[in-house]
Known about the structure:
Elements: H1 2-24, E1 28-31, E2 39-45, H2 56-68, E3 72-76, H3 83-88, H4 101-115, H5 117-120, E4 122-132, H6 134-143, E5 152-156, H7 169-180, H8 184-189, E6 203-208, H9 217-228, E7 233-238, H10 259-269
Parallel strand pairs: 2-3, 2-4, 4-5, 5-6, 6-7
Antiparallel strand pairs: 1-3
Amino acid sequence: MYDEMMRVLLSIIMLLSGISLLAKEKRLTPYLADTGKPSTAVIVCPGGSYCWHDMKTEGREVAEWLQANGISAFVLKYKVQGIVPYITHSRLLFRGNQHPDMINDLQQAISYVREHAEEYSIDPHQVGVMGFSAGGHLAMHSAEQPLSRPNFVAAIYPVVSMSHPDTHKRSRRALLGEYRKYNKKMRDSLSLEKHVPMDCPPVFLVNCKDDPVVKYHNSELLDSALTAQGINHRYIQYSTGGHGFGASDTKGSEECRAWKKEFIKWLKELDLQ
């Protein structure tokens, strides 16, 4: 009991200490909707295998689409491994960025947005997270945490498991580090399908059967776990579209690009938009 209390206390201290730094470093870019009333907000986590960020297709374009639909968006540039450490394996010698840096960034972003809700004219009880690929893993991971949990999650073609045979290995290495990627306990602890809480917020989940990057079984594992816990969620699996289409009007397929309309519809069904 004492160890658990200390762990939670340490998490709170790290969370609070990181909020001002997040704002100072300008790693959270707002795209505010002009609705005339407090709006729903979405923190956007671009993908990039936890190595880099797709700031255009899965960042800025997503935020502009949300903004145009009356939803305030905040694009988060969370810590990632980086190109040079990825190529050189420098984290064999130096820690660099790795778990839990990424989830700490997101939790700080959620807290920051809620604390500045009046300034940004958003509803602090309607703050969600939308992530793509590795960013989808990060978004769903935040829903499984006891602190700074979002009100809803959208995971688009997400990395899910760190222990299944269909694990996206580049993301696992970037997230866990050069040594911990072999640690079974760490792999299991970050396999989302194994840790869905009974009070998990609603989840919107999308992927494509022909995804050549993150195997479609990842989303199926998460869908099964959400169903087993009775979590309010919507899962859409498209036949075509591949990976990395974000909010683009040209990438992917005509079929998969329908996810955007489905997401807005889902929010309205939850009375969040």
